[in-house]
């Protein structure tokens, strides 16, 4: 394969054909990034902050164009795509400020004639690998803290959605970042994974994607002991307690679940509802879900876009068939609009009840607009079911009780919790998972740490 063919997932139309970087070209970019680090790390934090602010301003100026690019190559509704541009830029704004707060410390010495200073410095060249579900935000969430810290940065976007990244890199250069400080490469995942992990010049890998690929990258990176940040798969539960505000729970469930047609790693994959309120809740949720309009994201009225590709579509259909065969009841949905010849795939928002633990969708990430509903009778049972997964990224729960809420929060083994809140992400907060959902956090004051080394200096005076 010499060209990457980028398609619009809503129509199957070809948007662009872009030449793929050869192995040699990738190695040259890595060498240039490593060389550029020598001078980039010496820039002042204030200088880097100013460049980040200039980049941010250009992205804001090009908001509409970037939003349309995201909708074209990813499929999400334009309103969501514009929201993603704002979200993406908020990481740049946040880390432009954080750049100036890479504080060190002094430590009282154990003898009178010594002085001890601890400083923080940039790790080096960072290799980033990003997914297709947030082509802008997953890139800036890594690039902004890396560049703020003084690292140089090379990103490999997903082959499905490289156009947004390419444009963001152009704008970074226009803002004044030297070419070799922030670069993108276009090639298939395994090739880049192989090169990044075996390159001594790449000092850190930051990856957002599936858990098997993350594990593979970690295994291979052991050879050169690289720093790693891993944002991997999720299997988020929503717990609806007996005393929940059901209208709020319905609204927030819809926000959390149907954003990006359910193709986000924090998307709720299982809904656990107290048996005493299950019928009322399902009725309210179904009424709301029935209002969602599915279709091409460029049409302002559509709220649920296409599935990214046939592979993603087949996985969803397979999980739905498996659930129905094993006795799940379809309350709404389980309908599709697709054309394999044209290469587009839409899934109607779907709610299933009578779901059991042996169904695939209760064990694996679905990445589609499907809500399987299970009932529970005690909150401990709900917490156990929620935790019974190798994943630990996001979890949501709805209760009006302060005591119950704290009890659930303390019992859940997940890195991100939403209490009566279906949208807990933000540039100012630490995003990341426990267990097989990942290592490290992105966002907040935590998000710059993975790009910094600690250096300690002991002086005899
Ligand atoms: P998904 O199935 O959701 O696309 P992946 O983990 O396969 O999730 O993809 C996320 C990113 O990882 C994409 O940029 C993809 O090209 C890349 N990728 C896939 N396989 C590898 C690999 N072996 N090494 C490095 N990156 C990879």
Which molecules are bound besides the chains?
adenosine-5'-diphosphate
Whole-number tally of structural domains: 2
| Total DSSP E strands | 22
Range of helix content:
25-40%
Strand order of the largest sheet: 12-15-16-11-10-18-19
In CATH terms, the superfamily of the largest domain is Aldehyde Dehydrogenase, Chain A, domain 1
Characterize the main sheet: 7 strands, mixed
CATH architecture of the largest domain: 3-Layer(aba) Sandwich
User: What is the third-level CATH name, the topology of the largest domain?
Assistant: Aldehyde Dehydrogenase, Chain A, domain 1
The first-to-last residue Cα distance is 62 Å
Low-pLDDT runs of 5+ residues are none
Family: Belongs to the aldehyde dehydrogenase family.
Protein name: Aldehyde dehydrogenase
Organism: Kurthia sibirica
Keywords: Oxidoreductase
Describe this structure in words.
The model has no long low-confidence stretch (mean pLDDT 97). The chain is globular and about 75 Å long. It has 461 residues and is of the alpha/beta class. Strand 1 (3-7) and strand 2 form a beta hairpin. Helix 2 packs antiparallel against helix 5. It contains 13 helices and 22 strands. The protein has two domains: 3-232 and 437-460, Aldehyde Dehydrogenase, Chain A, domain 1; 236-426, Aldehyde Dehydrogenase, Chain A, domain 2 (3-Layer(aba) Sandwich). Helix content is 38%, strand content 23%. It starts with a strand and ends with a strand. The strands form six sheets. Strands 12-15-16-11-10-18-19 form a seven-stranded mixed beta sheet, with helices on both faces. A six-stranded mixed beta sheet has the order 7-6-5-8-9-21, with helices on both faces. Strands 3-4-22 form a three-stranded antiparallel beta sheet, with no helix packed on it. It has helices spanning 23-40, 45-61, 63-74, 78-98, 137-149, 162-175, 189-198, 211-221, 246-258, 278-289, 310-325, 379-387, 402-411, and strands at 3-7, 14-19, 105-107, 114-122, 125-129, 152-156, 182-184, 202-208, 227-231, 236-240, 268-274, 329-332, 336-339, 344-347, 350-353, 370-376, 391-392, 394-398, 416-419, 434-435, 438-439, 452-460. Adenosine-5'-diphosphate binds next to helix 7 and helix 8. Adenosine-5'-diphosphate is lined by residues 129-131, 156, 158-159, 189-190, 192-193, 209-210, 213, 216-217.
């Amino acid at each position: 394969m010499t060209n990457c063919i980028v398609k619009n997932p809503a129509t199957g139309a070809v948007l662009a054909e872009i030449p793929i970087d050869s192995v040699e070209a990738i190695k040259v970019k890595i060498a240039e990034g490593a060389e550029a680090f020598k001078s980039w790390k010496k820039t002042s934090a204030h200088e880097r902050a100013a460049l980040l602010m200039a980049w941010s301003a250009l992205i804001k100026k090009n908001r509409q164009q970037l939003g349309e690019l995201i909708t074209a190559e990813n499929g999400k509704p334009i309103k969501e795509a514009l929201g993603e541009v704002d979200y993406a830029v908020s990481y740049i704004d946040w880390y432009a400020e954080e750049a100036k707060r890479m504080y060190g410390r002094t430590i009282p010495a154990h003898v009178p004639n010594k002085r001890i200073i601890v400083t923080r410095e940039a790790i080096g060249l960072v290799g980033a690998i990003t997914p297709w579900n947030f082509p802008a935000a997953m890139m800036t969430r890594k690039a902004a803290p890396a560049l703020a810290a003084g690292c140089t940065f090379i990103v490999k976007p997903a082959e499905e959605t490289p156009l947004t990244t390419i444009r963001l890199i152009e704008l970074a250069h226009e803002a004044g970042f030297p070419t070799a400080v922030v670069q993108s490469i276009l090639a298939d995942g395994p090739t880049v994974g192989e090169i990044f992990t075996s390159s001594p010049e790449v000092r850190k890998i930051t990856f957002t994607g599936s858990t098997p690929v993350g594990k593979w990258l970690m295994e291979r990176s052991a050879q050169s002991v690289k720093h790693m940040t891993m944002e991997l798969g999720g299997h988020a539960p929503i717990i609806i307690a007996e005393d929940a505000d059901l209208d709020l729970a319905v609204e927030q469930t819809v926000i959390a679940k149907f954003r990006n047609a359910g193709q986000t790693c924090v998307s709720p994959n299982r809904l656990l509802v107290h048996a005493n309120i299950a019928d009322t809740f399902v009725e309210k949720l179904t009424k709301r879900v029935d209002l969602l309009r599915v279709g091409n994201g460029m049409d302002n009225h559509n709220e649920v876009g296409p599935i990214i590709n046939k592979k993603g579509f087949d996985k969803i259909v397979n999980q739905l068939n498996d659930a129905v065969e094993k006795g799940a009841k379809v309350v709404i949905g389980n309908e599709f609009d697709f054309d394999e010849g044209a290469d587009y795939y839409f899934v109607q928002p779907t709610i299933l009840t009578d779901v059991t633990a042996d169904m695939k969708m209760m064990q694996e990430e679905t990445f589609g607009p499907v809500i399987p509903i299970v009932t529970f009778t005690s909150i401990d049972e709900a917490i156990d079911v929620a935790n019974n997964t190798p994943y630990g990224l996001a979890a949501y729960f709805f209760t009006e009780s302060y005591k119950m809420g704290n009890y659930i929060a303390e019992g859940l083994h997940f890195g991100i919790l939403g209490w009566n809140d279906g949208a807990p992400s933000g540039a100012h907060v630490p995003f990341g998972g426990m267990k097989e959902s990942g290592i490290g956090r992105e966002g907040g004051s935590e998000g710059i740490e993975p790009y910094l080394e600690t250096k300690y200096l002991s002086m005899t005076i």
